[in-house]
Design a protein that fits this description.
Chain lengths: ~425, ~400
């Protein structure tokens, strides 16, 4: 019977060829566009550090004075950016109340290759404290990070990415060799294995958060001593002294690892106490509001996914919605036009569920065809996203989960589109229709 | 033709009509907001930077050898750059419009007073105004004795020693509404600085929102960091050659440096707005797609209805209705449906706008958009229904006695 209904459906669809084709194309574009954007947002909101992210937190304290500034500036400051001043970060680092903690800042420096044939070039990396590597579980191809003693001693040591190591030393590992950054020699103590957290969660979140890797890591204290160039936002609310050492400029990121919820609670209390303590010294004038964000919450809060992409998703879903309403309307009108035929079948003994099944199959054919085409359009859409110059572009790939989600969406859309018209049409009473004809 | 019978006939197709109304209103709501976004973004694309865009090229240079003082090196470099054929002027600057590298100061009118505006600072060597092609509308350019180094090594302390500033007209109006800003003092930091000139337009390095995109201060401060940007003015057709020669000249003077980001201002601008252009394309495609789907829905539904009503049309024709009456009937019916749709759609458009305002810093939707949206949908509806309506009008009276 199903096979017969399928053949009937094809006949019926063939009768309005153009209309059928347009319906299929409309639903296909809706599904294709939606799935493109859902996939892009899905890959971008993935966990950059699976297995570890739940124990990683950003402590947010707010050293800004009670704002004398215009409301515009104040309103932008309501979302904490997690940036800290040097004294605050050093206090938290040395207090060592978390299982692990690290202070860090981004920077790009000129790298001077040892061979004269190569020209110097810029690379970007991070100045970090010793726990960074253990806390984030960075894989090492060779060597290791440095110790807290190295931090204290402002050691001239460096950890390189596999890529920079290859660029500088070829196939021979650079462990123990020297790399000249800006105008200082550093000894390579570690070379990372492949490590590409997406987004680069530990850095300041901006439009470069995707598609960038750090090529080197240096001790933060050493970079501070050598005044290596710092990359990123620095906000000051007063002057005097060296901005990077001062207690009135925020520019450092700080991460802690807390292995249990109880420890997280205790750490929050510790932060609040620090805040109160600083208030006694005339700093941290704002009401005490110490916060702790876990990694995934932090990424959401910092809007790591650009607003434009969210907007594109809503646009695609809106388009799909209009297409669906459109198809429901058209199918309904089409089925009701066949009222005569349906009531004859009903009069000949067809049950309501037979009519429902028959018409349901007809609309499913449209939905499925649209879904298949939609899948192809989604692949095309993702291809076009990959051509964008943005860092997230290369992530735009459909995995198995997304593939099945697309299929599910197509089936769901077709069922929804067919359900209402088929239900309405199967309620046509046999006698009435015959009489009016 | 009176409306009540048409409305009464529509109640026989309640569900279908409601679906069409829903579709029209959804389309109206989305298209209004999308059109608003398109206009907003196109306006951004067209923002005048205030500089001679077609004549500027720039190049970043970073010293690796810290033996030569930056100020001396910049003079040597600039002399070499000015000697390149076709270069009419050159300056060393710390940033440019749309250059992303921004140093901004909260400007106050009294010491430690409330911040009136957060303005981006532009610093450069003498001749910066002429090189960029800025238009002074009031006052004068800086005098040679007013220049001081930025003092990058000490947190840009030059800002407390600089005697003069040139501001944009937008900033002048923000700081001194209705007054003449010339000769007045502002506090970009601790010390007062006198406004000696006002330029017409200058866009900041990083755009935030429309209101403050031209809040810019120009200081007579000499860049003295290891990294500097050289900007050269030349004729449009010489730009590529000048860029190449400039790179060579800089490396010839001293190989101990990194020269990068050699580009024309036109390229810089295109790069800055690339995402915006992609987004505009997507928005336009979405709006057109929605309108097309809606037109398709209207035309499709109308043609099904025409087929369904063939007999009643025949009866009406048989009892004296003209072709024109039938045509009018379908057109009026469509008008009724679309009108209901756009009224609901306008309300929905504002609801959508409110949601966007809450999440995306979108401004309020001007009334003009729903009005234009309504007119567009009416026209679209009439256009879409015209074909089916013509077919309806062509139904002969004899259809009354034929079945189905």
């Amino acid at each position: 019977m199903l096979g017969y209904y399928f053949v009937l459906a094809l006949y019926s669809l063939k009768r309005n060829r153009v209309m059928t084709a347009l319906m299929i194309v409309a639903i296909a574009i809706g599904i294709g566009a939606s799935m493109t954007m859902i996939t892009v947002l899905h890959v971008m909101s993935g966990d950059p550090l699976p297995g570890r992210s739940a124990q990683l937190y950003v402590p947010a304290i707010d050293p800004y004075p009670i704002s004398k500034d215009a409301p515009k500036v104040a309103s932008k400051d309501t979302t904490p950016d997690g940036a800290m001043t040097w004294p605050d970060a050093m206090y938290l680092l040395h207090a060592a109340r978390a299982d692990r903690q690290a202070a860090m800042a981004g920077g790009s420096v000129p790298v001077q290759p040892m061979q004269d044939t190569q020209r110097p070039f810029f690379e970007s990396g991070h100045y970090v404290s010793a726990d960074f590597f253990a806390m984030f579980g960075t894989p090492f191809r060779a060597g290791s990070g440095w110790t807290a003693q190295d931090d204290e001693a402002h050691a001239r040591v460096a950890v390189l990415s596999a890529e920079l190591d290859r660029k500088l030393f070829g196939n021979a590992l650079g462990i123990g060799r020297t790399v000249r950054l800006k105008d200082t020699d550093f000894r390579v103590v570690g070379v990372l294995g492949p490590w590409h957290p997406q987004p680069l969660f530990y850095a300041q979140i901006d439009d470069r958060s995707f598609g960038h890797d750090d090529q080197f890591f240096l001790p933060l204290a050493t970079a501070q001593e050598l005044k290596l160039p710092f990359d990123g936002r620095m906000s000051c609310w007063s002057n005097g002294g060296d901005a990077r050492n001062s207690d009135h400029c925020t520019w450092l990121q700080f991460w802690v690892q807390l292995d249990s919820a109880a420890k997280a609670r205790a750490y929050r209390v510790f932060l609040a106490n620090y805040w109160r303590d600083q208030q006694a010294h005339g700093r941290f004038q704002r009401p005490v509001d110490a916060r702790l964000y876990d990694l995934m919450d932090w990424l959401t809060l910092q809007r790591v996914i650009p607003d434009d992409l969210r907007l594109q998703l809503w646009l695609a879903l809106g388009f799909l919605g209009v297409c669906m309403v459109n198809i429901v309307g058209l199918l309904l009108a089409k089925f009701l036009r066949r009222s005569g035929e349906i009531s004859v079948r009903r009069a000949l003994g067809a049950r309501r569920r037979d009519i429902f099944l028959q018409l349901g199959i007809e609309s499913s054919v449209i939905g499925l065809a649209g879904g298949m085409l939609g899948l192809a359009i989604a692949q095309l859409g993702l291809w076009s996203v990959r051509q964008r110059p943005d860092g997230y572009a290369q992530l735009a790939q459909m995995d198995l989960a997304m593939l099945s989600a697309t299929f599910a969406l197509a089936v769901l859309a077709s069922l929804l589109a067919g359900l209402l018209p088929a239900w309405r049409a199967c309620r046509i009473a046999p006698a009435m229709q015959l009489k009016t004809q | 033709m009176s409306l009540p019978p048409i409305a009464a006939a529509l109640t026989r197709h309640r569900l279908t009509a409601l679906l069409l109304i829903a579709q029209v209103s959804l389309t109206c709501a989305i298209v209004c907001n999308v059109a608003f976004m398109i206009v907003h973004r196109v306006t951004q694309l067209g923002l005048a930077s205030g500089v001679a865009e077609n004549e500027l090229v720039m190049i970043d240079s970073t010293d690796l050898d810290s033996r030569t003082p930056p100020l001396v090196r910049h003079d040597t470099d600039l002399a070499a750059l000015r000697a390149i054929g076709g270069v009419s002027s050159a300056a060393a600057v710390d940033t440019l419009p749309l250059y992303l590298r921004e140093w901004a100061n909260g400007i106050t009118l009294v010491q430690d007073g409330p911040t009136r505006a957060v303005a981006a600072a532009f610093n450069g060597t003498p001749g910066e105004l002429a090189t960029l092609g800025l238009k002074l509308v009031e006052g004068r350019d800086f005098r040679p004795d007013e220049y001081v180094p930025i003092d990058t090594a000490h947190d840009w302390a030059g800002i407390d020693r600089v005697p003069a500033v040139i501001v944009t007209r937008a900033l002048a109006q923000r700081l001194f509404p209705g007054q003449d800003a010339l000769g007045k003092s502002i506090y970009p930091d601790e010390k007062p600085v006198r406004i000696v000139g006002v330029v017409d337009h200058l866009l900041r390095p990083r755009l935030h929102d429309e209101s403050d995109s031209e809040y810019v201060t120009l200081f007579p401060m000499l860049p003295d960091a290891n990294e500097v940007t050289y900007v050269l003015r030349t004729s449009p057709q010489d730009r590529d050659r000048v860029l190449k020669e400039a790179t060579d000249a800089l490396l010839r003077l001293d190989g101990e440096r990194i020269v990068r980001h050699a580009q024309t201002f036109t390229q810089l601008r295109a790069d800055y707005f690339r995402r915006n252009r992609t987004m505009i394309g997507l928005l336009i495609a979405a709006a057109l797609g929605l309108l097309f789907v809606t037109a398709l829905g209207i035309a499709g539904l109308a043609s099904f209805w025409v087929q369904q009503r063939k007999r009643s049309i025949g009866i009406r024709r048989a009892v004296g209705a003209t072709r024109r009456d039938i045509l009018r009937y379908f057109q009026t019916e469509n008008f009724l449906i679309v009108s209901t749709g756009v009224v609901l759609g306008s309300i929905l458009a504002y609801a959508l706008n409110m949601a966007l305002m809450a999440h995306y810093e979108q401004p309020r939707l001007p009334v003009l958009y729903p009005v234009i949206g309504a007119i567009a949908l009416w026209l679209l509806g009439q256009l879409a229904v015209f074909g089916p309506a013509l077919r309806a009008a062509a139904v002969p009276p004899v259809a009354a006695v034929r079945s189905g």
